[in-house]
Amino acid sequence: MNLSVKLPGLNLKNPIMPASGCFGFGKEYSEYYDLSLLGGVMMKAATQFERLGNPTPRVAETSAGMLNAIGLQNPGVQQIIDHEVPRLAKYDTSIIANIAGSSIEEYEFVAASFNQTTDVDALELNISCPNVKEGGIQFGTDPFMAKKVTEVVKKASNKPVYVKLSPNVHNIVEMAKAVEEAGADGLSMINTLTGMKIHLPSRKPLIANKTGGLSGPAIKPVAIRMIYEVRQQVSIPIIGMGGITSAEDVLEYLIAGADAVAVGTANFQNPFVCVDIINELPEVLEQYGFNSIEDVIEKRGITV
Ligand SMILES: Cc1cc2nc3c(=O)[nH]c(=O)nc-3n(C[C@H](O)[C@H](O)[C@H](O)COP(=O)(O)O)c2cc1C
Prior knowledge:
Strand order of the largest sheet: 3-16-15-10-9-8-7-4
CATH superfamily: Aldolase class I
Structural class: alpha/beta
Distance between the termini: 24 Å
CATH class: Alpha Beta
Strand content: 15-25%
Bound molecules: flavin mononucleotide
CATH topology: TIM Barrel
Order of helices and strands: EEEEEEHEHEHHEHEEEEEHEHEHHH
Number of strands: 16
C-alpha cells in the first residue's frame, strides 16, 4: 500500500515521524532499528548556543501522561549541523530541524545557520516551548509576535518552515491564521499543555521548574479538536502530534485534518513504536476503507 505523502520540502515515504525532543538526534534509536524506515525525523530543538536545560527533576509521570520541563537542552546549532545532521543524513529519511530562541534575533540566526546544509529538508519553528524563562512563550501565545517571528525566519531561511503551535492559547485558529499569513509553509501541532504535579511529602512541585509540559494520550483529544478547528480555516498542511500510540490514532489525526503525524512520548515507553505503527498502518487503513494516505486526505472532506 502506498503510504507516501508529499508536503512542502518533504517527500515522505510514510507519514510517521518521531516528534522533536522525544528522539534526540536519533543516535540511541539507531541502535534499535534502521532509521530509513521512518517518514522523517524531527530533531531536538536547536538554539544559537549550547543549552544545558533546566535543573532536575525535569520529568515526571502523572496519572494521565508525562510532564517535562527539559528547557531546550541542546549542543547549539553549529554542533548540530557539524555532527548530528551528517550522521542522520546517512539514512534515507527526511530531516526536519526544530529551531528555538529567546529573541527574534536568535530565531533568525538559527534559521539562517541551517542554510549551510542541504541535508536538512525543512524547519520546524518552535514558538511554543512553555519551559524557558526568557521569551519563548510570548511568541507562541501572541498572534502578532507569532507572525513577526515567522516572517523573520521565512526571510532568513531557504527551507520550508512549519510553525509549531502551542495549545496554551484561547484561540488556536487565530494563531494558525497569523502564521499562515506570515508565509508559513505548514503547521505542526500541538506542543505540550502546561501542567503541574505536587510531591506530597515535601508539599512542593515535583518538577524543579514548578510547571512542565503535559504530553501523551491525555492530550490527544485536545490536539484532535484543535487540528479539526484549524483545518476548517487554514489551507497549509498540518503535521499532527499529541498522544499518538497506534495506527488507529494516526488515522484519527488524518481524518481530523492532519497530513502527516509525529509520535512523541510513546517512544519512551516503546522504542519501536514508530516502526510498529508504520507496519500496522496498511491493515488499519484497509479496515476502514482507505487504499492510501492520499486517499484518507482526499476523502476527509466528506467525512469531517
Ligand atoms: C521530553 C520532551 C521533550 C520535548 N522537546 C521538544 C523540543 O525540543 N522542541 C519541540 O518543539 N517540542 C518538544 N517536545 C514536544 C513534542 O515534540 C510533542 O509536541 C509533544 O510531546 C506532544 O506529542 P506526544 O504527546 O506524542 O509526546 C518535547 C516533548 C517531550 C515529552
